[in-house]
Amino acid sequence: MARGVKNRAVTVRRVSGKPSVEELHLWPDTLRSLSSALSAGIDYQRALASVLTGLKSASRRAHTRAERGVRATWADIADVLSALMSAHSAGYDPAHACSTLALRREHSRQRCEELTLCLGLSYGTGAPLADTLRSCADYAEAAIDARLARESALAAPAATARLLSTLPFVGLGLGALLGADPLGVLFGSIPGALCGAAGLYLGWAGYSWSARLVHSAEVKSL
Predict the structure, then answer these.
(1) Is the Cβ–Cβ distance between 82 and 52 less than 8 Å?
(2) Each residue's pLDDT tens digit in the chain (222 positions)?
(3) Residue 106: which of 172, 11, 18 has the closest Cα?
(4) Which of 76, 148, 185, 189 is the most buried (most CB within 10 A)?
């Protein structure tokens, strides 16, 4: 079991890039489906198999038009469900089965950690797994909503920083249209070249500083 998981982890290639809203909601939707199956009286192993079958069927139908991140998340969820099924059949700890997986997307790793905690809580306290999974789905959706709200709030400062960084070049173009010779001044004399170099440096420093501020706000809001 451990050897198979290890070999599989080596061949998995992580997928970078910002996840879409559709991709982010694949995990809570899967957790709700699993919770509904357990609430309907289906045993744990059959519930996992049912959700996995439905997931693979949906991914095959939409595979050609789905974006790369969505396909990677589908594969991550399928790997996690398969690992849980194998662990349950062999009597292994499901937390260990999930922890050894190499998933493709960062948010998949976060959801997998939360799912592992839910399974441990249910097995350790005897809490109904269906209710625990439903709470896990609620938490995942709340995290997604917070992430989208944070990105929306930070979009304006980031756009402003990009706009301000282009203003010096716009000024050069306007100066040329008005009959001045800004490029001749910048490249035709030592003082002009020094002013141009200083302007480029200050523009780069301002943009870098703004980018760090936005990144710091993103990190602190996690």
Answers:
(1) yes
(2) 333 434 344 456 777 777 888 888 999 999 999 999 999 989 888 999 999 998 888 777 766 666 788 888 888 899 999 988 888 888 777 777 777 788 888 888 888 888 888 888 887 788 888 999 999 999 989 988 888 888 787 777 778 777 877 878 887 788 878 877 777 777 888 888 888 888 888 888 887 887 787 777 666 555
(3) 18
(4) 76
Structure tokens at 189: 């004399």
For residue 94, which amino acid is it? Answer: P
Largest CA distance in the chain: 83
Is residue 125 within 8 Å of 185, Cβ to Cβ?
Answer: no
Exposed/middle/buried for residue 111 (C-beta within 10 Å: 0-12, 13-18, 19+): buried
Write down the pTM of the prediction. Answer: 0.67
